[in-house]
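Hi everyone,

Forwarding the result from last night's run.
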Amino acid sequence: MLNIALFGPPGAGKGTQSEFLIEKYKLFYISTGDILRKEIAEGSALGLEARSIIASGGLVSDEIIVQIIEKTIQSNPNANGFLFDGFPRTYIQAYILEGLMIKLNTALNCLISLEVDEETSVQRLLERGKQSGRMDDNEKVIRNRLHEYNEKTLPVLNFYKEKGNYFAVNGSQSIEQVSADIEVIVQNELSKSLMNIVLFGYPGSGRGSQGRALAKAYGLEYIATGPMLEQEIAKNTAIGKQISQLYESGKLVPDEIVVKLIEKKLEQSKGIKGFIFKGFPRTLVQSYILDGLLKKHGSSISKVIELEVPTLELISRLDARSKTDDCMPYDTSTEKIVKRLQEHENKTVPVINKYNHLHGVTKINGMGSFEEVNKRLSEEIENAFKTLTHN
């Protein structure tokens, strides 16, 4: 999700650049004035409260404004992101927006400020006044508006400068050049986004082979807990020795070890487009761990996919696999196969349900040839990349 706050004094060309951003990146436009008028027109509880305050000559409180913004964002779950115009206007509202973004499990990517000197703004607005006949576009009113903008906006700009996501653009250039400069900023922000895919499916659904193929095709890092642990053993690392001792004693590898290895992968993610997770998270606890790990590294889950295969087909596939070199420990008997499927049902299905509630889980038909299933998965991943990069 791409969230941008666009700032600029009167006459900076904010309206034109807003149209460019909305069209280019398919953002939902949030103007506090517009959404407030919409609530009032619809006669909602918030709208009625706001209308009563305005009728009595008062200013609509931040408490009402933030509720309307939250309602607007939640009412547009399919938006690629949001463009904020007119919010935050004050230092306090900057904190309010930060808190709201955290609540909604997202963040403001950047504040873009169109910077134009006072004389350029005055001349542009005077020219606009001649063309439109607007009575408020006279020099005295214009300079007062510019003074008010600078007084109120400076603390907000400083807030985002300190956060490191403030970007200034020379608004005195041509419209095309300003748009080009903005695009450079936005593309740089988007390049920081990782494509993180969690691939679910019962044992025998083909997650492993499909996950490896997809990772190779799209430049993603394939993370499967089993191979990752075996790699540590093969390298004879300190963690590998610890894992070997656990295996020899018949104990399960604790989450603490798996987490260290996943975090190591995340820290080495420079130049990687993202990750495909297979076999993790397997439990609700692990799902919270993964969410926390990604959040710590400034990332999040981009797509959750579940391969669907009928139970009898799963048993047939696993039984056939037991007769090959790819045999897994739980393939060796029908009893073990059924037990493993039940374990997935009890422990992992609740994780899928959780992610379905939070992100939505894309169900993919896992029946057919490898190529047929791969094509279905590839289409979903390509669509996810389009959403991530907004191209």
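The first strand starts at residue 2 and ends at 7.

Cheers,
N.
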